[in-house]
Amino acid sequence: MKRVLFYLGVVAVVATVVYFTIQATWRSGKAPARRGSGGAVAVAVEVAPVQKKDMADEGRFTGSLLPRSRFVVAPKVAGRLNKLACDVGDTVSRGQVLAEIEDEEFVQDVAQAEADLAIARATLTESMAMLDIGRREFERVKAMRQQKVSSEAEVDAAQAQYKSREAKTEVSKAQVLQKEAALKTSRIRLAYTKIQALWDETTPTRLVGERFQDVGAMLSANTPILSLLDIRMVIAVVEVVERDYFRIHVGQEALITTGALPGQTFRGKVVRMAPALDAETRQARVEIEIPNPDLLLKPGMFVRTQIQFSQHPNVLAVPASAIVSREGAKGVFLIDREGQKAVLTRVETGITQGDFVEIASPTLVGDVVTMGHHLLEDGSPVLIAGAEADKPSGRKEAK
Known about the structure:
Blueprint: H1 2-27, E1 43-49, E2 51-73, E3 79-84, E4 91-93, E5 97-101, H2 104-146, H3 152-191, E6 194-196, E7 205-211, E8 218-219, E9 226-241, H4 242-245, E10 253-257, E11 266-273, E12 283-291, E13 302-319, E14 324-326, E15 329-336, E16 341-346, E17 348-353, E18 356-361, E19 367-371, E20 382-384
Parallel strand pairs: 1-20
Antiparallel strand pairs: 1-19, 2-9, 2-13, 3-5, 3-8, 4-7, 5-6, 7-9, 9-12, 10-11, 10-13, 11-12, 13-18, 14-15, 15-16, 17-18
């Protein structure tokens, strides 16, 4: 019973294959029962001509956009945020005051430092006057000693007093320098209450990307307030596998597209490559710099990047669907129009671009099978879809 069921199943499969083959041939306007010279049933196939095309070897990658520069504005001193001069999306200029911290305490520190400096300078003036008195007294005693009027002890005492006043004068000078430095520090800290936008001079303006604080907030030093972005030039960051890594080099041009801006293509240039691949992903970071004068590209956008490795102009190409694998080698089925059969021809392929594959060798002429080749062997008879099944027999058709 099991054997009978097995044979019935085989018959059903064969009948299904024959049915669909007949349907396909009838749709193309051909007789379903045409046979080749060896008696084999012809296979209905679709064909396409071998073409001459310009083929380019390209790498396609995906990634995200980053601003060329981004930094966070933060105060260097603690205090209450009194004023914000800009908000998200605003354009700011280099040197512009973006925020202000409450400064009363810092103003008082400056005043105290100025008073301390005034005292130090007055002390120095007094010390210098006393030094001058001590110097003259020492010279007078020395002169009297030469005249045998004063003793050696008086000379030593006058000299010691002079040296002491000289030392006090040096101390007063150091105190003046110290108070001048303290005053300078106080003024700098006071200046820090006005937070400016400072960066290199590559771009005159930048955009406020984020705001982290509101007016009235108590801030400690280095608390983020705003972030500033330079997006007149953006960076596309892509990850490339090791197979493509060694085909990319700094200075190579790239084409960038994004789904957010359909129909628009942007040109960029590879500016940086990671010197090593990640051990886990086997990928390396590549950065592509893209001019963005109209500010159409925004950081965070998903982009597709195309980098051309090489180009082969005017080469033979066939549809990718025509390539078959037989016994571990690539090939195509060429159509023999006279014999109405398919001839298996081994080929060496080159660049694959879109739906086409370059044929590096041999030189092919004619049509190749693009559909139905899974049913073909070398020399199999074929029925070509879209062509007449038989030549005119001379019999007139009924009108």
